[in-house]
């Protein structure tokens, strides 16, 4: 299977999810930092502790996670430093569904609402904003064009 085909299947599997609720042994975590070599430092929903999780082979070079993304992890027994493995990368649709079902941790709720207010709740939460471009509001554009015409 080619790299493109594999990537397509991984994305399809991730996006066409049936919003299955987390199992007993799975936890919702927030990515704090990437530590390289397919390892990520995450913050647990149960306490202030941070620990390392590994990216499974099927996600490597196909799906990327960044700081402040939410993931579903499953604990592993091997190793001392790496405590869990990523099961699922949560999209904003997952967050909404988990909140409706009452499964979403209260620790992550306030921060998510604050970021929606800052972004303006445009509905494009999954699309990332390019920080290298200046953000121009439509109102500013209209003012600029009218002042040029005079």
Largest sheet, spatial ordering of strands: 1-2-3-5-4
CATH topology call: OB fold (Dihydrolipoamide Acetyltransferase, E2P)
**CATH-derived architecture:** Beta Barrel
Characterize the main sheet.
5 strands, mixed, barrel
Distance between the termini: 61 Å
CATH-defined superfamily: Nucleic acid-binding proteins
Instruction: Categorize the overall geometry.
Output: globular
Helix content: 25-40%
User: What class, by secondary structure content?
Assistant: alpha+beta
Order of helices and strands: HEEEEEHHH
How much of the residues is beta strand, in percent? 15-25%
Beta strands, count: 5
List the helices and strands and how they pair.
Blueprint: H1 3-15, E1 27-36, E2 39-44, E3 50-54, E4 70-75, E5 82-89, H2 92-101, H3 106-119, H4 138-149
Parallel strand pairs: 3-5
Antiparallel strand pairs: 1-2, 1-4, 2-3, 4-5
Account of the protein in words:
This protein has one domain (3-149): Nucleic acid-binding proteins (OB fold (Dihydrolipoamide Acetyltransferase, E2P)). It has helices at residues 3-15, 92-101, 106-119, 138-149, and strands spanning 27-36, 39-44, 50-54, 70-75, 82-89. A five-stranded mixed β-barrel has the order 1-2-3-5-4. The chain is an alpha+beta fold and 150 residues long.
């Amino acid at each position: 299977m080619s790299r493109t085909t594999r990537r397509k299947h991984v994305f399809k599997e991730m996006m066409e999810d049936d919003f299955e609720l987390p199992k007993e042994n799975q936890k919702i975590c927030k990515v704090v930092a990437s530590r390289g070599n397919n390892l990520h430092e995450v913050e647990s929903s149960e306490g202030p502790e941070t620990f390392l999780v590994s990216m499974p082979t099927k996600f490597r070079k196909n799906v990327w996670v960044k700081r402040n993304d939410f993931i579903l992890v499953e604990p592993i027994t091997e190793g001392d430093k790496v405590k869990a493995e990523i099961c699922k990368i949560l999209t904003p649709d997952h967050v909404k569904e988990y909140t409706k079902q009452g499964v979403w941790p209260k620790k992550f709720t306030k921060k998510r609402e604050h970021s929606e207010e800052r972004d303006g709740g445009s509905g494009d939460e999954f699309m990332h904003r390019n920080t290298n471009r200046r953000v121009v509001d439509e109102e500013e554009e209209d003012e600029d064009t009218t002042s040029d015409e005079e």
